[in-house]
Amino acid sequence: MSLLVFDVITIFPRFFEGPLSFGIVNQAQKKGTIGIQIHDLREFTTDRHKTVDDRPFGGGEGMVLKPEPIFEAVERIYSRQLRREGRVILLTPQGRRLSQQIAKDLSTFRQITLICGRYEGVDERVAEFLVDEEISIGDYVLSGGELAACVLIDSVTRLIPGVLNNERSRVNESFGGTSEDVGSPTPSLVLDFPQYTRPESFAGHRVPEPLLSGNHEKIRLWRRRKALEKTLKNRPDLLQYASLSEPDRRLLNDSLE
Ligand code: SAH
Questions:
Q1: How many CB atoms are closer than 10 A to CB 71?
Q2: Residue 65 CA, closest ligand 1 atom number
Q3: Residue 57, ligand 1, Cβ within 6 A
Q4: Centroid of ligand 1 to alpha carbon of 66 (angstroms)
Q5: pLDDT per position as a tens digit, 54-64
Q6: Quick one: which of 47, 206, 243, 256 could link to 184 by a disulfide (CB 3.0–4.6 Å)?
Q7: 115-148 burial, b if ≥16 CB within 10 A, otherwise e?
Q8: Binding site membership of 114 for ligand 1 (Cβ less than 6 Å)
């Protein structure tokens, strides 16, 4: 039995044929670690025209997804299993912003329902009375929740134990935090260190010397320093200087000098 089943509610079921059929998410489905079930919102309508949207009360542009088919779809999904084992999520730019930590928390559920909006959005009663939480994948507006659902499925799936072939590849990963952060009230999140592969010299650019040295301690320190530098350069918001360990501070000070 799957460790985690995603149920996706959408008006474009065929959207998901491509994005979920490659790499780790594909393997996890084949192994049966995760299950993904796509539900066509139109199948939960009761009128002849299979209407999923309507004009907004109060006037204004565009259309809004109606509440009844969405409530009906969620009810049908939970006739299959206990709702308390699952999580119902509305994808919306007005939600909490998805992070590695949120993905980690979600990876412990047995089932996750994802509701994809379209047009001007979804009748607010879905957010108010149906879902457990609203999640956004970033501060920009997409034309639909389907891409956001794929992003969430991918980021959550690779955090389920046994999904990555090499579990250690998660240890130094960006946003992972590390053991060096433990105990700090606001841990620093450090980005991954830079990676190089062959050739040793490409267009005159050489692979940094420490990586070729074979000296494990030297490599470890170099990677940590580079990870800290990259974080400071591109994402200073992630680095709480006060919560860095003493060795980290020394490494960072060395590079600032
Ligand atoms: N009028 C809304 C945007 C609607 S966009 C507003 O301004 O807040 C249409 C649908 O795309 C949304 O219902 C949502 O499901 C999806 N969507 C758009 N941007 C998103 C984002 N950043 N994260 C998650 N879902 C998003």
A1: 16
A2: 13
A3: no
A4: 15
A5: 999 999 999 99
A6: 243
A7: bbbbbebbbeebbeebbeebbbbeeeebebbbeb
A8: no
Q: pLDDT value at position 241?
A: 82
Compute the distance from residue 237 Cα to the ligand 1 centre, in Å. Answer: 25
Please tell me the distance between residue 190's alpha carbon and the centre of ligand 1 in angstroms: 29
Size of the chain, expressed as the number of residues it contains: 257
Residue nearest atom 22 of ligand 1, based on CA coordinates: 93
Q: 141: left (phi > 0), else alpha (psi -120 to 50), else beta?
A: beta
Whether the pLDDT of residue 103 is over 90: the answer is yes
Instruction: Using pLDDT thresholds of 50, 70 and 90, give the confidence band for residue 109.
Output: very high
Q: How much distance in Å is there from the Cα of 121 to the middle of ligand 1?
A: 6
* Nearest C-alpha neighbor of 34 from the set 146, 169, 163, 152: 163
CB 90 within 8 A of CB 118: no
CA end-to-end distance (rounded Å), the chain: 55
pTM exceeds 0.90, yes or no: yes
What would the DSSP string read from start to end of 48-110?
TT---EEPPTT--SS-EE-HHHHHHHHHHHTTSS-GGGEEEEEEEEEEEEP-HHHHHHHTT-S
* Closest ligand 1 atom to Cα of 121: 13
The mean pLDDT value for 167-179 works out to 71
Write the pLDDT tens digit of every residue in 76-99: 999 887 788 899 999 999 999 999
Within 10 A of 173 (CB to CB), how many other CB atoms are there?
Answer: 17
Q: Measure 223 CA to ligand 1 centroid, in angstroms.
A: 38
> What CA–CA distance (Å, rounded) separates 63 from 143?
12
